[in-house]
Amino acid sequence: MPEFSIDPDIRRARTLPSRFYTDARFFELSKERIFARTWQLVAGPELSATLTPVNLLPGFLDEPLLISQGDSSTACMSNVCTHRGKVLVEEPCEASLIRCGYHGRRFSLEGKFLSMPEFEGVEDFPSPDDDLRPVAFAERSGFRFASLDPISPFEDFITEPAAHITDLDPASLKFTGRREYRVHAHWALYCENYLEGFHIPYVHQALNKVVDYGTYTTETFRYSSLQTGFDEGGGVAGRYLFIFPNLMFNFYPWGISVNVVKPVSPAEIVVEYLTYVADETSFATGAGGDLDAVELEDEAVVESVQRGIRSRFYDRGRYSPTREQGTHHFHRLIAGFIG
């Protein structure tokens, strides 16, 4: 018996029940059933070191990973020594091999066990278990993604909207900054808000003057969705690519803003903002203008919803068939992954 289901017909469907957001059991289930089985952004085009440690969703999945860049390829693997479990690489560095600072075990840049002092006479050693565990890894236009136990290849998550990433020239993108916002809301509530333009006229007054709400579109794919906002002249003001469950790529005439939603607790998240500028002359204009103001407006709304869903008078809502296709699609994915 499934935990909950969402009718595929948006005209009949009801939203996720409030217990998904309020019951800590579902927060814990989402770690292995959703986040461990999907793809996370682990690095952008600015990655340069031979060895770069990554903590995959710290405080949540909290998995130490290591990105290793060789002369001709890049790999992702466990960053934990197979001897006694010490984290191997603590800071980005240049190196020709990986050496544990605890007892001297050494690995190649591909994670293959090389040597270990004082292990003479140990039977059945070394074995494949002494190599560093490889992690599923994908790269698109300089952006790197990893998955602990992918339900499907990365290509299935990007599919039709792939052109919006693969057409980019990583050399043209200048990384200009990282910001973090701490939001007192469930991770899914923040994503739901992102997945519909329905709220723009009511929440984002300045943005509403730039985006022609009447021509706003939403397309859904297997594990992603794409929203497009047009300006009054019919040009593209912004494209908003969501990759399930928590990655957001925002494409503007000046470049890209990337949002990563990181769960902390059932009622708290950290949203990481990464900015990549291709055209400095148009930076911070149009729909991609005052992103900080838009973020604060979104935070106020989702924090209010976080308080409201705990009401004994609320359980499930309905969808607008013309404006909430993205949220309906998102809820169906959650229900399918949770099982």
Could you characterize the architecture of this molecule?
With 339 residues, the protein is an alpha+beta fold. It has helices spanning 19-22, 24-33, 154-158, 163-166, 187-194, 200-203, 205-208, 291-308, 325-338, and strands spanning 40-43, 51-56, 63-69, 74-78, 98-99, 106-107, 113-115, 136-140, 143-147, 174-183, 217-220, 224-230, 236-243, 247-252, 255-265, 268-277. The chain folds into 2 domains: 1-38 and 162-339, Naphthalene 1,2-dioxygenase Alpha Subunit, Chain A, domain 1; 40-149, Rieske Iron-sulfur Protein (3-layer Sandwich). It has 9 helices and 16 strands.
Helix and strand arrangement:
Elements: H1 19-22, H2 24-33, E1 40-43, E2 51-56, E3 63-69, E4 74-78, E5 98-99, E6 106-107, E7 113-115, E8 136-140, E9 143-147, H3 154-158, H4 163-166, E10 174-183, H5 187-194, H6 200-203, H7 205-208, E11 217-220, E12 224-230, E13 236-243, E14 247-252, E15 255-265, E16 268-277, H8 291-308, H9 325-338
Antiparallel strand pairs: 1-9, 2-3, 3-4, 5-6, 6-7, 8-9, 10-16, 11-12, 12-13, 13-14, 14-15, 15-16
Helix pairs in contact: 5-8
Rg estimate, integer Å: 22 Å
Any idea what the shape is?
Answer: globular
The largest pleated sheet is described as: 7 strands, antiparallel
Unreliable stretches (pLDDT < 50, length at least 5) are none
Strand content: 25-35%
Give the helix tally.
9
Going by CATH, what is the homologous superfamily of the largest domain?
Naphthalene 1,2-dioxygenase Alpha Subunit, Chain A, domain 1
> What's the overall average pLDDT, rounded?
93
Q: Report helical residue fraction.
A: 10-25%
Please identify, by name, the CATH architecture of the largest domain. Alpha-Beta Complex
| SS class | alpha+beta
Report the count of strand segments: 16
Give the topology string: H per helix, E per strand. HHEEEEEEEEEHHEHHHEEEEEEHH
Looking across the biggest beta sheet, what order are the strands in?
10-16-15-14-13-12-11
| Beginning-to-end CA distance, first to last residue | 8 Å
Question: According to CATH, what is the topology of the largest domain?
Answer: Naphthalene 1,2-dioxygenase Alpha Subunit, Chain A, domain 1
**Overall structural domain count:** 2
Q: What is the CATH C-level name of the largest domain?
A: Alpha Beta
